[in-house]
Amino acid sequence: MKLLKELAIGFALGALFILVFIFFTLTAAIPADAQNAEPVCADREALTFVLADRWGESARSVGLVSSGELVLEVYANIETGTWTLASTSPEGEMCIIIAGQDYSEVRLPQGQPS
After folding, report:
1. pLDDT at 19 over 50
2. Coil, strand, or helix at residue 3?
3. Spatial separation of the C-alpha atoms in residues 108 and 68, rounded to whole Å
4. What is the pLDDT of residues 57-105, one digit of tens each?
5. Separation CA 22–CA 67 (nearest Å)
6. What is the bridge-based pairing of β-strands 71-76 and 58-64?
7. d(CA 40, CA 38)
8. Would you give the DSSP letter of residue 37?
9. 10 Å Cβ neighbour count for 66?
10. Which residue in 2, 29, 35, 71 has the most C-beta neighbors within 10 A?
11. What separation in angstroms does the CA of 46 have from each of 49, 50, 93, 95?
């Protein structure tokens, strides 16, 4: 029963992550000169260092893409509100997909259906 509850919570969090990703992808105001820009890709360790060192961002959520070929990660700085959505391949190459401002976390009240 406990395993079922944990799986349900994990599924709900994964679904929420996907919905947030779709929302920001469809509604984010991207400057015209950045719309056709290639994603920034590098070794995951190097990019996570830059996100932490320059922006103060740390990993806030992670999810496996249904194909199993990529991991999506959200990095954010709670104090400044900056956030970055990145994907990482099994080979360890990380690509920054999009970044923005005004990050906030949504927490469901205890006992609330997800």
Report:
1. no
2. helix
3. 28
4. 999 999 999 888 899 999 999 999 999 999 999 999 999 999 999 998 8
5. 17
6. antiparallel
7. 6
8. P
9. 9
10. 71
11. 5, 6, 10, 11
Distance CA 47, CA 42 (A): 6
DSSP string, 8-34: HHHHHHHHHHHHHHHHHHHH----GGG
Tokens at 84, concatenated: 């970055």
| pTM score, whole prediction | 0.63
Tokens of 39: 């994603």
Q: Which residue has the tokens 């920034």?
A: 40
Distance CA 55, CA 64 (A): 24
Token reading at 108: 């469901």
Give 28's contacts (C-beta < 8 A, 6+ positions apart). 98, 100
Q: What is the pLDDT of residues 3-17, one digit of tens each?
A: 545 544 554 445 445
